[in-house]
Design a protein that fits this description.
The complex is a heterodimer of chains A (346) and B (382).
Chain A (H helix, E strand, L loop, with lengths): L2 H10 L2 E8 L3 E6 L4 E5 L2 E4 L2 H7 L4 E2 H6 L4 E4 L12 H18 L7 E8 L1 H6 L1 H9 L4 E6 H8 L4 E8 L4 E7 L8 E4 L3 H15 L7 H11 L10 E6 L2 E6 L1 H9 L2 H13 L6 H5 L2 E4 L8 H10 L6 E3 L6 H12 L9
Parallel strand pairs in A: 1-7, 7-8, 9-14, 14-15
Antiparallel strand pairs in A: 1-2, 2-3, 4-5, 4-6, 9-10, 10-11, 12-13
Helix pairs in contact in A: 4-6, 7-14, 8-9, 8-10
Chain B lengths: L2 H20 L6 H29 L28 H6 L4 E2 L14 E2 L4 H12 L5 H5 L5 E6 L16 H18 L4 E4 L9 H9 L5 E8 L8 E6 L5 H11 L7 H35 L7 E7 L3 H5 L4 E8 L3 H7 L2 H40 L1
Parallel strand pairs in B: 3-4, 3-5, 5-8, 6-7
Antiparallel strand pairs in B: 1-2, 6-8
Helix pairs in contact in B: 2-4, 2-8, 2-9, 4-12, 6-12, 8-9, 9-12
The chains are: A alpha/beta (346), B alpha/beta (382).
Chain lengths: 346, 382
Amino acid sequence: MTKKSATKAAEKNKKLLVGIDLGTSRSAIAADNGKRKWVESYVGWPRDFIARKVVGKPVLFGEEAVAHRLSLDIYRPLKNGVIKEGTARDEEAVKELIRHLLSLVRPESDDSRVRAVVGVPAESFKVNKVALKKAVAEFAESLLVVSEPFAVAYGVEALDNAMVIDIGAGTVDFCIMHGTVPAEEDQRTVLTAGDYIDQQLESFLRERYPEADFTLNMVRRFKEEHSFVGEPPEEVKVEIPVEGKSTLHDITDEMQRACESILPAIVETTLELIAKFDPEYQDAIRENIILAGGGSQIRGLADYLEKTIGEYGPTTIKTVEDPLFGGADGALALACEMPEEYWTEL
Amino acid sequence: MANADSKRVKSVILQGVYEENLKIGAGSSASVRRRAILRHRRTAVPVLLILLVSLALVPGRFSPLPDRTPAAEPSALAEPAPMLPWPDILSGYTHAPLAPPPAEKIVSAPLPAVPLDAGRLLDYDLLLNSDSVRLSAVFGLGVQTIVIDPGHGGKDPGAIGSRGTMEKDIVLDIALRLRDRLQQSGNYRVLMTRDDDTFLSLAERVRFANTHDTDLFISLHINALPQKESNVTETYYFGPPSDLYTLRLAEQENRGSDIQTGDFRNMIRKIGDLLKEQESATLAATIQQSLFSNMQKYDKKISDAGTKIAPFVVLLGVDAPSVLVEISCITKQEEELSLGTESYRDQISLFLQQGITRYLSQRHIQVVKGEKNDKEIGNKSG
């Protein structure tokens, strides 16, 4: 083989390994070329040709889509953790989201074949495997789908006697790791997650400040900046317009109540899942609980859970270092370590 | 974890991921689901046979044999048991005592053995895999208590229209009207999870249904969509248990022909799951059909999203067949205006009633079909 043809063959066989975390609220991608990107999981298409002219693009993603939401048909395809079955636009939105994520880590000139491991909310993993595979087929040579909490667990090497609690926007996913791929009975999903906090906070604020003018999007920002459970770390004051005038509002109590509204389900599910596990290993699991996802950033959450679950025995709760990329990094780790023979062409 | 151990565990996990993904076939989710249901039905065949025979031989509340055991306590069944030829079926078996089970498993007198007849099993396979036969018909299960669950309430307004119309108020009004309509027939006990503007958690709704001998559970909601011009009607029900669950249960069942307490409990649970799924799917279909076909008269552009399977906690938790109806979309301005009128809400309650009534009458048809099939089966084996 000449040097030229060898180079050509190498080019042809060039592969890009990616790990994708397809989240309800945010989606992230990590590639073996070192690039990592994330985007809000919104996809929007211009409503008509005027909107198309205004926004200047055939399809918009993430914050850009949210910013132009009035001109767009906007979708959050994995709302509540699943692609709505039979809704073609949601399936199309997943496809566009994956295309967009790949474009963020792969230059147009790069024609390497993509091998992807995609982490999805546990419910979606159960319900939408085929739809996901179809959505990715166009862009990847081969694909493996895993549940999000499992991808996180693999990424932090919590492979045995560990539990991952992935607190996302649409779902809180629980997963017990015991040295093998978790079975369905090792996993649980609860639907009171980040979005539920937003709804609660919005309702509490409307009740307390009926004259204040705000949107759910603003409420979500308040939560992301100030969320906490337990003792307030400081007074939470935010600016909300009242009759057009920006006014400072104290939302400390409302923030606490809204954030704490998801705790009973988390505690109950954690205890239930551990209690169903082999009693010889229950202590070990309780001492190796990992919080992941955007919700893991709620201040005081790890301490609260450690204290509450600690009543049942010694408990250690850690939080992943980078919740935004925890799932994508884990999926990439899986992609990198997956033996060649396990990659089958789509 | 030691390095060698970690490598070994990773290797097992990676192989597991590969094998899990191999299972994701090229077929549509619907066909995958259908296969799952069929598989479920097939595994139910020997279970059902064993269960029926054991139920027939152990007198009690669950006995499906009419007129054989005195009614020790009031039955929840509203309809008479179907005329199924159980005595004929049973006559083909020889009753012999079982080999004694391990001492710790003995909870009562030893059960008689039920040697299985392959020909009979085939007959049951035909019976259970026929689309026209439902377990509710086979067991002659009736409907006595219907629980209507108006979504949201109290501090939880649900979806809010641009004019401030709240989902919680609309669904409560429709639910009250539906209750009155269903009660008029005098055949059913109709209960509401809430009949005023009270907040109930999902767990409380589930608990209410499960503690009131519920036979049907209908949760009413109004949808909100980001596409303000869209109006969609859809009805949800909960899907079957996982394949793994079925697999493990099948493993347990295949241990032998002796019935032990644990196995027995699992059998009942499994049949219960299948029954719930069959009934929920049928109820969802009749409600959806009635709603969509009638609501089209009011909104020609309304979309039929059909019946869907979704992991709603309330549908999972309620033991009885249950559906969640998303009547329409409050985010469409015209629809919000219509929902604000009493006559429209009354009409919706009528459409829901029609769907439920059609479902209830189909249960009867299924019984008749079940008898027909039994006759065919009887002729075939005879």
